[in-house]
Amino acid sequence: IHCGHGRGAAYGDTLCRVLDAFGHQVSREFYVNDGLNSLQMQLFALSVKAKYREKLGLDYNFPEDGYQGDYIEQVAEQILQEFGEEKKDADLSFWQPYAQELMLELQRKDLERFGVVFDTWFSEQSLYDKGEVDDAIEELKKRGWTYEHEGALWFKTTEFGDDKDRVLIRANGQKTYIASDVAYHRDKLERGFDYLINVWGADHHGYITRTRASIEAMGYEGDRFCVEIIQIVRFMKSGKPVTMSKRAGEMVRLSELMDELGVDVARFFYLMRSHEAHMDFDLDLAEENSERNPVYYAQYAHARICSLLSRAKESGYECDVQGFRSWTLHEAEQDLIIKIWDLAFEVERCASDHQVHRLTAYAIELARAYHNFYDKCRVLDENAQDVSSARLVLCEATVSALRACFKLLG
User: Which residues pair with 229 in a beta bridge?
Assistant: First the structure.
């Protein structure tokens, strides 16, 4: 999991939290592209094997375009510690599934630390093992949505708005990604989910229409399927882009970003702009302990209120909403009350259109409204106990709203 993936992880998890808060029953699922015919998985396994043999001082062939990050070294070292020289001549039937499981465990740990926990880790290969891919292809054939051309089996995705038909089975008999995608989405629908939300990277935009086609071709409504595309995040340091790479050695892992910034700051910054827009992640600003840093600014409001409530309790003040009846509200109080009240509607809006970045804006606006209220309205006043008791209620309500917002943001 590298830091470019962090944006999708933060977005997907927060969307789940929002939908959950709004009353939906939500299941979080990680789809593992572990098909045995996957070129990327083969490259990964061969990269680990080469590193393992290198550690043993043996000849090795590092694959062209192989993976070179420090995680390859980490996985190879784990296998070396467990098996010694035993696997020096093992083939892919060992290396691919075993190296994959170790890699997935690293991913689970990084994601859990990031506050992202999946209910299900779904294996693409399991669809093949259970015969679901073949079953799905047969279903498409029965429904008349396939044809043969030049030795390959094609899916009539143009009948569902795609720009061209797609190959399901190549002339050499190898099944394509779309074949397992058809089976996977049918599997989810047959498990009883009413609505499927896929969170994909920017390079997968072209797959939306063909995937929706597979759902409609199976007889399901296309509007039960939604894809949220996560646009590219660019990391900035000293005003200049920091180069990231998925396979090269200079890749920066999400765990390194968490070490540098902490989970709260990393998640908040990822969520500050709509997932549909490209974003610049300002690493210098994220490291600042000042009011310029929006996370610091929002969390400082929470700390400020907690300190005030503690002092009020020690001094014998009581919270009583009835005090609001005894005077005309200050404009700053009205603004704060309206902003607190708006949280439920923000959740409703986010659940409706999936634009969860509104919650970071809400946290900042609520903090700003509180700071303005604190500066203009005296909270603890021995000569106006009823006013103080009512304003303390307002402080408690602000804390509740901030905590609820922070929880939704993870």
Answer: 200
